[in-house]
Amino acid sequence: MTQLNPEDVRRVAGLANLHLNESEIPAMQEQLGRILTFIDQLKEVDTSGVEPLAHPFELVNAFREDIPTPMLPREEALKNAPSTDGKYFQVPAILDAED
């Protein structure tokens, strides 16, 4: 199994914006090591005769006619909202001003 040191785990956690406490580091070391070992196994697979593909299934666009329909009246759309300003939905801020 590929071994990572605690500093590697802290760096990867930081890149993933994860906040680990010191007691979580050993478990993450083991899990990341198993993942890297699996990736090493995948690198050994012979794919020389395999055609590259972008998606495992053949995709077909299912287009439909774009037919305008009447809009829902604003009052009807807003009537069950927990908070509005009369014209728009009001939602809690999710980003700090510093972001």
Specify the biggest β-sheet: none
State the distance separating the first and last CA atoms.
39 Å
Evaluate the radius of gyration: 25 Å
Q: Strand-residue fraction?
A: under 5%
| Secondary-structure content class | mainly alpha
Number of strands: 0
* Form type: flat
- In CATH, the architecture of the domain at 6-43 is Orthogonal Bundle
The residue-averaged pLDDT reads 91
List descriptors.
Histone, subunit A; mainly alpha; about 100 residues
Description:
This protein is mostly helical and 99 residues long. It has a domain of 38 residues: Histone, subunit A (Orthogonal Bundle), CATH 1.10.20. It is 34% helix and 0% strand. The protein has three helices and no strands. Helix 1 crosses helix 2. The two termini are 39 Å apart. The mean pLDDT is 91.
Strand-helix topology:
Blueprint (H helix, E strand, L loop, with lengths): L5 H10 L9 H19 L30 H5 L21
Helix pairs in contact: 1-2
